[in-house]
Amino acid sequence: MAKSKKTKIKLSIPDSKVATLPVVDVNGLPKYKHYTDSLYHSVRLFFEEPKSTDEVTDSRYPRKSYFRAAKYSTGKKDAFLMVRDGKELVGYEIATTFAQLTIKKMSLADISKSTLGKIHSTINSLFGFLSTLESPPTSADKLSMEHVSRWLSTLTTNTAKTYKSHFKTLVDLHPTLSKRNLTAIKLKEKTTSVRDLSKVDLDKLKEEYDYSDKELIQILAYAFYEIEQAQRHFNALEKSSEIGLGDDFIPLNNVKMSNKKIFELLESGNEGHEKLLKNIYIYIRNERNGIRHTPYSSDLNYFMARLRTACSRKNKYNHLDSFMDFLYSLGWAITGGKTESKVKYASILSLQSDHHELAILLYTLITTGLNLETVLDWRVRVNDKLWYDIFDVELGVTSKTPSRDKSIVLVGKKAKGYGSSKFISTPVKINSPLYNYLKFLDSNRNADRTFFFNISDLHRKLTAFALNYNIVDDSGASLKSIETRRIRKVFAGHKLLRLLKDVKNADELIAKLKDALNHSQFDTTLFSYILKSGVGNLVINSAIVALTSDLLEKALTFQGKIKEDGERSSDTHKVYLCDCSDPSNPSHELPIAVSCRKYDMCLGCERSEVYSEHLPAICYRIMQYENKQSSDPEIFKVTLEDRLYIARDTIDKFRIRHQNGVELVELAYEQANNAMQNETPLLPPILQTGGI
Asked: Which of 32, 122, 630, 639 could form a disulfide with 689 if both were Cys (CB 3.0 to 4.6 A apart)?
């Protein structure tokens, strides 16, 4: 039936079927021309003054606007022109390079005049700053991170944020500048004036700055879950095969209405959905290996399209909807929102999404205590050497060092005031979870990338993480996002071990954590690690926290010596928590008879020597102290609190000073934890109280 005039659709037919390709310059960008048109010819932008009136008229596009047209402008006639004015500030090469970047950006999408105005304000500000330097860059390639960081530091917080965003959209189009990790540049915090400092509650400010243990443990647990899910998908991709699926494998040429196996699986609930998922893994792996059975579509897209067609012809919409719900439940919308259509399940299953990379980044921040800027500066390759071959030479580590003693070093930059920075070296044991997670990330990321972490729009994705898992603060309100500057090291206690076992999905994990946080005595000791046996049966290590400010104020620290096993002398006396070099002359200044028997005072005495065999007993004693603290906090505070601080400090110092400290502390804690849970005492009850 012919359409009426009102309903006819008008199509814009190009005059020629030949596509016009932009001419490319030697720097990989479009050739410079003193003006350019937007994608749909709605705007013409000038980088230098128009040469004639012909350039500010266009009979083919009579409604075209002319932006920065100098004397031909209807508005401001002396506005900044990127090349005309820029070459006087930074030279012709840099000015034309940014003009070429703008040309490329305008060829990719239609840009509003408002956005163009902000881009020009950004470039005007940058060029003005560079012109003030004693040794400014002579070409765009020599524009360094330091130049950009120093420029942004001269601006107000809001302006810096806006200019950084527009600057990044341009340099992301440059073949070499795009490799700069602009995300690592930290903007200065927005400040507010305070008229009366006496009215500022400094304790409250400090308290609100860091996340509480309750908040951090939620973030850490959900990060673990995301990593485990990614590892499960990775293993499934590696192991799934047509032979392994047997009769449940559905070839692409048999995804049709007559195939009863399809509808049998669709109607079998989760069991059938899991088998269909294994088919999906096979087709994802095909795409990863460059295999396509149809030239115009990936095998997965073809499989899903044929599946929808078969279901529509069989009128099996409900069963297909149930399967799609199952697929959407495997992830969440990392770009924000809870709309299922935004859950890119194919990207999640193929590990191309940022879900697990974000989780590994959070795990790294929490367990190392480093700031975001430093971690984002970790490089995959340094001086043509891959990160896992850069051994900790200061500890004498080489490729021949036994694995249990081997560690590598990751180095990241941290800004230190105006225009200066320092490098932070972080040793990582190769048998640690962090090392394994970084290797896992390597296995599904581009081997030629410069930095470990390359998450675009990081803040938005941290917000989506908090939204999906509904992380609650101490008052019960939901966190709106995750602020990385508030992250610190956290250590979940041994009681958490039982809470995180055998979780089947994210919702169950959330429910368990919420119940524990709201109703249980949720222990958060400073020396523990999390064991989460569930989907992946992973043992998760969180390294030991640095001394708390409270401990520093009281100067309650371990007073003895940390010793290697080979240094042990036959002259020392063995006691419960350590060896004593001279029991007749303790330094704790409490009255004794001939020999000191105040064994709970040992770690605060200068005569104590701690060896690896003492660690389980010390860890067990800490748990005993914590139980006392839970049962009667007021009495504990005036009787045993000092000893708890000292015992924790002993563990911390052993971890740092002993060559195998991290591993030995982990093992000792596990032994003590098992003894506590199985009610197998490693020490007698706490009898001694009183000050040291």
From this structure: 639
Q: Which residues pair with 297 in a beta bridge?
A: 294
Task: State how far the Cα of 604 lies from the Cα of 558, in Å rounded to an integer.
Answer: 5
pLDDT 10s digits, 346-379: 899 999 999 999 999 998 888 787 888 899 999 9
Q: What is the pLDDT of residue 468?
A: 86
Q: Which two tokens stand for residue 199?
A: 């009215």
pLDDT-derived band at 101 (thresholds 50, 70, 90) equals: very high
Burial of 167 (0-12, 13-18, 19+ CB in 10 A): buried
Helix 317-328 × helix 299-314 angle, to 10°: 150
Three state DSSP letters for 67-92: ECCHHHCCCCCCCCCCCCCHHHHHCH
Q: Is 553 helix (H, G, I), strand (E, B) or coil?
A: helix
Of 81-90, 215-224, 335-344, 407-416, which one has max mean pLDDT? 81-90
H/E run at residue 255: none
Encoded tokens for 68: 């920065």
Q: What angle do CA 637, 641, 642 make, to 5 degrees?
A: 130
Number of other CB atoms surrounding residue 564 within 10 Å: 12
Given phi > 0 = left and psi -120 to 50 = alpha, else beta, which region is 98? alpha
Res 542: pLDDT: 26
| Confidence band for 431, pLDDT divided at 50, 70 and 90 | confident
Global model pTM greater than 0.70: no
Exposure string of 656-671, with b = 16+ CB inside 10 Å and e = fewer, is eebebbbbbbbebbbb
Distance CA 78, CA 75 (A): 9
End-to-end CA separation in angstroms for the chain: 98
Length of the chain: 692
With cut-offs at 50, 70 and 90, classify the pLDDT of residue 93: very high
d(CA 665, CA 657): 12
What pLDDT score was predicted for residue 493? 35
SS (H, E, C) 187-222: CCCCCCCCCCHHHCCHHHHHHHHCCCHHHHHHHHHH
The answer for 384, left when phi > 0, alpha when psi is -120 to 50, beta otherwise, is left
Q: Average pLDDT, whole number, for the chain? A: 77
Quick one: tokens of 536? 């992946």
DSSP-based three-state secondary structure for 528? coil
Amino acid sitting at position 416:
K
Q: Rounded CA gap, 179 and 140, in Å?
A: 13
Q: Are 669 and 527 in contact (CB under 8 A)?
A: yes
Taking a C-beta distance cutoff of 8 angstroms, is the pair 579, 573 a contact?
Answer: yes
Taking a C-beta distance cutoff of 8 angstroms, is the pair 530, 221 a contact? yes
Please state the rounded mean pLDDT for residues 188-201: 48
Token code pair at residue 226: 């995301």
CA distances from 200 to 197, 206, 212, 302, 622 (A): 5, 11, 21, 63, 36
Q: Can you spell out the DSSP letters for 269-326?
A: HHHHHHHHHHHHHHHHHHHHTT--SBTTB-HHHHHHHHHHHHHHHHT-HHHHHHHHHH
Identify how many contiguous H helices and E strands the chain contains and give both numbers.
24, 13
Q: Determine contact, residues 668/613, Cβ cutoff 8 Å.
A: no
- The token pair that represents 155 in the structure block: 């601006």
Q: Please tell me the distance from the alpha carbon of residue 572 to that of residue 659, in angstroms, as a whole number.
A: 22
Question: Measuring CA to CA, which residue among 212, 487, 210 is closest to residue 365?
Answer: 487
| Diameter over CA atoms, the chain | 114
Identify the three-state secondary structure at position 60.
coil
Confidence band of 396 (pLDDT split at 50, 70, 90): low
- What is the mean pLDDT of the segment spanning 132-136? 79
Angle made by CA atoms 560, 565, 566, in degrees to the nearest 5:
115
Span 597-623, average pLDDT: 88
